[in-house]
From TrEMBL:
Gene Ontology CC annotations of this record: plasma membrane
Organism from which the protein derives: Herbiconiux oxytropis
Official protein name in the record: DUF3817 domain-containing protein
UniProt xrefs under Pfam families: DUF3817
Subcellular location(s) per record: Cell membrane
Residues forming coiled coils: none
Membrane spanning residue stretches: 20-40, 67-89, 101-120
Superkingdom, taxonomy of origin: Bacteria
Topological relation to the membrane, as annotated: Multi-pass membrane protein
Keyword Zinc on entry: no
């Protein structure tokens, strides 16, 4: 028999799900920004994003010519740290739900495969909410006791 979440953990699971959903959206957006930045920098365009330089508040400049804040590097670093937070939220939800290890790996891939985090956020959210609703409805039903003679 597979392990099931404990009813006393249901409030913690709801909190872990909300944390996961927020982390999933932030990580997904950061990953898309990172992909756009990589396309600008590592294609023949060879552009980087500069903040507050002599070309204006926000400018695309040739690679290696950034003189102000290099937003391209900032996006890279921010995504890396948000991915760590995303992995923590994944681990927390996975351990409370007592899912198999492969589920942890699949959810973790959401932070490195563009758009996957958005799909996983929706499907994991539906799955967890449906599970909790079914278990709570089951617990709320009156238990029938058979009389023995």
């Amino acid at each position: 028999m597979a392990l099931a979440p404990k009813p006393k953990d249901f409030p913690r699971i709801r909190g872990a799900l909300k944390f996961y959903q927020v982390a999933s959206v932030i990580t997904g957006v950061m990953l898309l920004l990172l992909c756009a930045e990589m396309l600008l920098k590592y294609t023949p365009l060879g552009l980087e994003l500069e903040l507050g330089g002599p070309r204006g508040l926000l400018a695309l400049v040739p690679e290696g010519t950034v003189v102000a804040v290099n937003l391209s590097t900032g996006i890279l670093i921010a995504h890396g740290w948000f991915y760590v937070v995303y992995l923590f939220s994944d681990f927390r939800l996975w351990s409370l739900m007592r899912w198999p290890f492969w589920a942890f790996i699949v959810i973790a891939l959401g932070g490195v495969i563009p758009f996957l985090s958005f799909f996983l956020e929706a499907s994991v959210g539906r799955r967890v909410k449906a599970y909790l609703a079914a278990r709570e409805a089951e617990a709320a039903r009156p238990q029938t006791v058979e009389a023995s003679h």
